[in-house]
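For this section, I looked closely at a protein sequence along with its fold in token form, which I now present.
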Amino acid sequence: MFQSYTIKDIAKALGLSTSTVSRALNGSYEIGAETKKLVLEYAEKINYRPNPIALSLKDQRSHSIGVVVPEVANNFFSQAINGIESIAYNRGYHVIITQTHESAAREAANVQHLLSRHVDGLLVSLSSETTDLDQYKYLHDKGFPIVFFDRIANSIDTHKVTADNYKGAFEATEHLIKTGFEKIGHLTSASQLSITRERLEGYKAALEKHGIPFQAELVKHCNHGGTVQQEVETAVTQLMQEKPDAIFVASDRLTTTCIPMIKKLGLRIPDDVAIAGFTNSDVAELFAPPLTVVRQPAFQIGQVATEMLINVIESKRPVTEFTTETLDTILIDRESSHKA
């Protein structure tokens, strides 16, 4: 549970005035060493952080934006960050980037660190472990600007930007069906992620349209989204025991990570199993064979999310109406999805 403490709470607990606590926290020479030590130790004990709302007042803005992503090395996120920076710097904002490496604990720590750096707002793509959204709800309820992109929090009413995950998954799965495959496996990320749910629904819808029964045993989840090699290897091995003739892979990292796993099992692509997946990798066509992929407009997603966030930061009135922008995907047909 996200707990916020104020200077008043510290003052009450220590029997001091709020002005004394404030000056002690700011290192004022007017406050004695013992009092400073007392205040700072107590603040550390309760994990006190300055009020982000007060810090984002117009005359106290830092003109910096905090970005929370799972992994910068991921093709999608590196391109989205380029989009974020292209807008932010032109609008006079610095960008502070943090990585969660798919850890909910690291994500929470990153958010607290960014708030301590007095960022004016947050751009967030949730980690695969994140289920507790309390810190985001608290900040949003207090009027702190947050925009979610790609992996969004559906329960929080704020601006969001995503690709059309359902359509992308539907088109990739239907492409495999039309190319002649019927037993299509699905390799995907943690089940609670918005992108996982939307892409799974697109996969199911394509099967249903073409009269192919959905088989739960053909769906394998990698809860760390491809960042843990052993997890991917286990999922691919289990999936191939079901003998699918094609696999639709539902994330950027998983798509590029699963290829060597399949080859390690002695299987040939597309002779033994065809592949189509989500990835923004610029070298997908250089794979052997070249990969059929769903490509997301990552750069534009970053740009749109940043424009939204800065507009909220600079709004002269509290923003109470929010939108979700859904950008189109592109299916790029290559050799990995065609029968030999």
